[in-house]
Amino acid sequence: MRDPEVPPAVRARLEARAAARRERARLPMEEKVRIIIRMQKIARAMALATGRPPPRVWDVPG
Amino acid sequence: MEATVRVLNALEADGIVRRYAIAGAMGASFYIEPTIAEHLDVLVLLPEPDEETIDVLRPIYRRLVQEAGHKTDRECIVIAGIPVQFLEAFDPLAIEAVEQAIDLPVGSETARVSRIEHLMAIMLQVGRPKDHVRLALALEQADLDREVFRDILERHGLTARWEAFQRRYGDA
After folding, report:
1. Is the ipTM of this complex over 0.85?
2. What does the pLDDT read at residue B135?
3. Does residue B155 have a pLDDT over 90?
4. pLDDT tens per residue, range B78-87
5. Residue A3 backbone dihedrals phi, psi, to 5 degrees
6. Crossing angle for the helix pair B146-155 and B159-169, nearest 10 degrees?
7. Is the pLDDT of residue B49 over 90?
8. Residue of B112, B107, B88 lying closest to B13 (CA atoms)
9. Which of A13, A41, B43, B97 is the most buried (most CB within 10 A)?
C-alpha cells in the first residue's frame, strides 16, 4: 500500500522497517526461537510489573 | 526446538499419529518474522481408533506423559521446554493443512509445517485481531503463492472474508 499523503521521509522510514522485518523473516528457525524467548521474557517482566498474569517463558536447552 | 521436533517425528514414525503439522503462530513464524507465542500448535490426523472414545488425543498423552515422562502445563504437554498443544484436525481446511504440509529444517531435524497459504486461510477463518495482524505480516513478508491461496479461499468458502479483510486493511 502506498499512500500519496505520507511524507517521503516517513515513507522511507516505514519502508526501511518493512525491509528489516523481511530480513528477520529469513532467519533460521533456531534464531527465531531465541528471539521469541527474549520477547516472552520481556512480556513476563511487564506482566509482573503491572499485576497481570505472567505468560510462560520456554525453557529450551541451548 | 530441534528436540521437540524429534519427538513429534517419532510420534508419527511410531504410528501414534498418522500425520502432524505445526500450525498457529509458530507455524507462521517459519515464514514471517518471529512473533510472540505461548505454545506450539500441532494439528494431527489420527489413525482409525480401535474403540469408540471421546478422548481421541489419549494415545498421544499416554505415550508422551505416562510413558516418556513429559510434564503437562494447562492444555499443553511440555516437550523439551516447549509447551505443545495437540489439536485434532477435524474440519476440511485443517485436514488439508496437515495433508499438504511441507518439510522445513529446524537444526538437524525436519519439521512438518503447514503451508503459509493454509495458515493464512486459517487466520482468516478464525479472525481474531491477532490473526489479522499475522495475516498482514504474512502478506508483507512471506513468499506466498497467490494462486494457491485464492484456490484455498474459494474451496473453503472464505472469499467473502478475504474481500472484507482487503477492504479494511488493504493488501500489503
Report:
1. yes
2. 95
3. yes
4. 999 999 999 9
5. -90, 120
6. 120
7. no
8. B112
9. B43
- In the numeric block, which cell numbers belong to residue B107? 537444526
Nearest residue to B93 via CA among B172, B156, B21: B156
| Mutation target among A2, A32, A52 for the B interface, most CBs of B within 10 A | A32
Over residues A11-56, the pLDDT tens digits come to 999 899 989 989 999 999 999 999 999 999 999 999 999 999 999 9
DSSP-derived pairing of the beta strands B76-79 and B82-88 = antiparallel
Q: How far is residue B65 from each of residues B60, B62, B163, B165, measured CA to CA in Å? A: 8, 6, 44, 41
Q: What percent of chain B is predicted at pLDDT more than 90?
A: 88
What angle, 0 to 180 degrees and rounded to 10, lies between the N-to-C axes of helices B146-155 and B116-126? Answer: 40
Taking CA–CA distances from B105, the nearest residue in chain A reads A29
- Cβ neighbours of residue B82 under 8 Å, at least 6 residues apart? A58, A60, B1, B4, B39, B40
Contacts A35 to B, Cβ<8 Å: 34
Q: Is B142's Cβ below 8 Å from some Cβ in A? A: yes
Question: 3-state DSSP call for residue B88?
Answer: strand
Name the pLDDT band for B111 (thresholds 50, 70, 90): very high
Closest CA to A22 of B31, B159, B134, B126: B31
In a mutagenesis test of the B interface, which of A36, A42, A46, A59 is the best target, namely the one with the most B β-carbons within 10 Å? A36
**Beta strands of B62-145 (E only): which ranges?**
71-73, 76-79, 82-88, 102-106, 109-113
